[in-house]
Amino acid sequence: MPRYGKIVVIRRNGIDGMVYPLTSTSCLFGRSTGCNIRMRLPWVSNEHCKIEINENKEAVLTNLSAVNPTKLNGAGFEQPVPLKHGDVLTIIDRSFRFEYPLQSTPKKRRSRSPKDETLQQVAEVELLHKKNSGAKSLDAS
C-alpha cells in the first residue's frame, strides 16, 4: 500500500497528536461519517476540504466550505493549492500539518557542465595514479 504522506493533528497546546497516513489518493475532512478525518463540530461542513494526490504525486488542498473556509498557513485561499511539506491547514479552530514521506521528497540534481566532467575525470585519474604509486613503493620495501 503506497504512502503519499501523512496528516498530523496539532493539539491546542501545540504538541503533535494523532497521525493519519495518506494511503489513498484522496483524504476528505468534515463532519460526515464518510469523511476520512471526521470532526464532530457543528461549524464544520459535512465535507469541509479535501487533499488529493495528483498524477505527479503532489498533494493538492481544495476548500469545500463557503461558510467557514479552510485556511492554509493562516491565510484563506479560493483555488486548489499544492501543499508543501510542513504546511498547516486550519478548519475552524483545529489545525493539521501535512508531511510528505521522507523518501519521496524530491532532491534537485545539479547538472554538470562539460568542464566539471573533465575536472572530475582528471581528479579520478590522479587518485588512481597515487594509489598505484603507493602500492609500488610498498612492494619495493
UniProtKB/TrEMBL annotation:
<dbReference type="GO" id="GO:0005694">
    <property type="term" value="C:chromosome"/>
</dbReference>
<dbReference type="GO" id="GO:0005634">
    <property type="term" value="C:nucleus"/>
</dbReference>
<dbReference type="GO" id="GO:0051983">
    <property type="term" value="P:regulation of chromosome segregation"/>
</dbReference>
<dbReference type="InterPro" id="IPR008984">
    <property type="entry name" value="SMAD_FHA_dom_sf"/>
</dbReference>
<protein>
    <submittedName>
        <fullName>KI67 protein</fullName>
    </submittedName>
</protein>
<feature type="domain" description="FHA">
    <location>
        <begin position="27"/>
        <end position="77"/>
    </location>
</feature>
<dbReference type="Pfam" id="PF00498">
    <property type="entry name" value="FHA"/>
</dbReference>
<dbReference type="InterPro" id="IPR000253">
    <property type="entry name" value="FHA_dom"/>
</dbReference>
<dbReference type="GO" id="GO:0007088">
    <property type="term" value="P:regulation of mitotic nuclear division"/>
</dbReference>
